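User: Some background: our group keeps a shared notebook of sequences we're curious about, and every so often someone picks one and asks for a predicted structure to add to the entry. Today it's my turn. The entry only has the sequence so far, pasted here. Could you supply the structure so I can complete it?
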Amino acid sequence: MHKLWGGRFQGSIDDRAFEFNESLSFDKRLYKEDISGSIAHVTMLGKCGILSEEDSDLIIKGLSGILSDIEDGSLAIEGNYEDIHSFVESVLTERIGEAGKRLHTGRSRNDQVALDMKLYIRNTIDALDENLKDLMKILFRLIEENEETYMPGFTHLQKAQSVTLAHHLGAYFEMFMRDRDRFHDIRKRLNSCPLGAGALAGTTYPLDRNMTATLLEFDQPTRNSMDSVSDRDYLIEFLGALSIIMMHLSRFSEEVILWNSDEYRFVEIDDRFSTGSSIMPQKKNPDIAELVRGKTGRVYGSLMSLLTVMKGIPLAYDKDMQEDKEPAFDAIDTVQSCIVLFGAMLDTMKFNKPKMEASSKKGFTNATDVADYLVKKGVPFRDAHSISGRLVLKCIDRHCSLDELRLEELREESDSFEEDVYEAISLNTCVEARKTQGAPSKDSMDEVIRTYRKYLEE
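Assistant: Of course. Here's the predicted structure to add to the notebook entry:
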């Protein structure tokens, strides 16, 4: 049993307690960050004269060899080790001898694990940011292709006004832009280096913390050693950002599920991202969208888990904080797979444009345009609203749409109606007349598309 703290103890830890306490089974994914942090630490120790140049070079060579062997599969991260830190240090000492025991000079596992986790989350943010950008590129292609694909827009899940598919998808593009902004903000806030904080009160060794911060591409060292080892705000923020991404993906998935239903038939999901039924041969189920929607709760649970862990912990480090890793790792894996698979599903999905347009023509999505038409003829808006509502009732009774009413039927409610009303309330006009910034007309969307293209190129 390999442990870094045995000197004070006379007996061995209970096997059950060791198993309960160990973290190697899940923190082994931090091996790259642990080794790179150790290399920076030893480089600094050598430059500051705390370690001899010979020992420093030997340790760095040994650590580099361990990293290489792990990555090529010749060294498995396994065995009776407490955590990734004890694994690396023990293997190093086995390989290079006494010099390996000097690796931990001027360092605690508390600032070491704080560093490893910050490095890991920083790298993960960069990877997930690229995943989001790839998804947005798929969205952008669909937006460009569907500026004139008409569909109903909804409020309360009822048809409200006509929009375009490009405009609808643009709403999700905006959400994912904000998600990336959150990533960038979190990355900036977490980018202070905790290495050198020690267990909680720094160290008597003359460390150059600015050097290690620079070597590891941090903006600066952390300012308070107690906060350095007990801070998990950045991880809570990160899990919050992941939860918001999943909320966005879940909303999008819900719409795909609805659009895929026989009642809508707006989309057809590619066979590669659907499954069938074991009993009903006609079924084609939107499993990827449903799983993304379902896995959202799992990511929310990771956020709530860490918030609950941290809420009652006194300063500085407590073992409770080991419970930050498994929820974070699970959330990261879940979100990454959801982004990638949702993007692949979206990229291969077919949109039923005639069905979407036909649906937009039904449900009185031009009722507001009838009212706007009357306002332009001098009718007060509140009266125009009432007239349009009565016309909708008339259409419901006669099982027709507003543009199917004859002019004399329209004039029964207001003599302000003229022949030009039919052009004013046509589907094309209803969309294209909405030219205000952020509206669905082609003119407005062209401007937005230029902005999106520039955004993706930066």
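Suggested note for the entry: The chain has three domains: 14-105, 110-147+163-354, 359-457. Residues 250 and 293 are 4 Å apart (CA to CA).
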